[in-house]
Known about the structure:
FAD/NAD(P)-binding domain; 7-stranded mixed sheet; alpha/beta
Amino acid sequence: MTEKGITRRQLIKQGGLALTALALPFPLTAFTKYNKMKDNKNFDVIIIGGSYAGLSAGMALGRALRNVLIIDSGKPCNIQTPHDISTTAKKQVEKYSTVKFYNGLATNGIKKESGFEITTQTGDKFTAKKLIFATGVKDIMSNIKGFSECWGISIIHCPYCHGYEYSNDKTGVFANGDIAFEIGKLINNWTKDLTIFTNGKSTLDDEQVLKLKKHNIKIVEKEIDYFNHKNGQIESIVFKDSTSEKIKALYARPKFEQHCEMPKQLGCELTEQNYIKIDPFQKTTEHGIFACGDNTSMIRSVSYAIAMGGIAGGMTNRELIEDEF
Ligand SMILES: Cc1cc2nc3c(=O)[nH]c(=O)nc-3n(C[C@H](O)[C@H](O)[C@H](O)COP(=O)(O)OP(=O)(O)OC[C@H]3O[C@@H](n4cnc5c(N)ncnc54)[C@H](O)[C@@H]3O)c2cc1C
């Protein structure tokens, strides 16, 4: 509990585990590890990415008696979530002997007559009838000193994930133009002590500036030198003119890239916003390939990734049944 009540993470921990028996990717020692000497290299489904979405898909398929391999390189986008969530949940997933886990990076995928062949960085090769990409996205960090250290702690992207804990605090928005306006409008709901830091000349238009002023949202155009912090907790923004401003939280929306290029290489179409294109059942534009989680959606939340993973798992099983029956 925080002084402001239960955190969203605790809520996920309590609610999410009971409902979905799901896990985070590290440490993944609890999984039935793929055994090179003993195990078959041919699977019904290979899931690339073993975080929230991938594990959820694995759970659905493992329970559907499908032989599944989850390949995970252990680099989820959100490294701040407490590890006890993963430890408890993974104990639940490991019950399924149908799900094997391979710790490593999948680097190449090719189409075969009977499905797909995946090669890992160390040269191991596996085949499967179907593929699921649960590979997430990579946020591109600002190179301003202190940004990456604070990312996910006090430099945050989502008010639904972190806003309650910072409600009514002295808060900043690190953005410019239309994005700054949209984030400012949104965060005004959580705090009335809000400043937009444009890091150089503002590109907000006159109408936007007027509206922001009406809501007492300040605009600072000074160039930022660095973010002053203690263990990731931001304390102030230091400008290039050596002045500084105290702050408790800063919202930022960094650009992102797909964590894995393989869906594109295998022919899966991407949307204009750089997400893997899917239908309502998580099927990509390529037959036999499904995708779920952050790589397919701008709505980034643990619960949504889990939900999408469950659908992807179920629909992949459905496609196998259609092929086989
Ligand atoms: C800083 C931060 C804080 C957040 N806080 C919250 C919060 O409080 N509450 C909330 O609900 N949501 C939060 N989110 C959002 C949430 O973490 C994501 O929506 C969720 O992690 C998405 O899960 P995913 O499985 O799609 O992707 P990820 O968790 O990013 O996992 C993708 C996995 O795929 C693996 N992978 C990628 N490519 C390959 C490859 N080629 N071979 C093998 N493995 C590969 C990666 O190593 C990684 O383990 C936060 C996000 C961030 C960035």
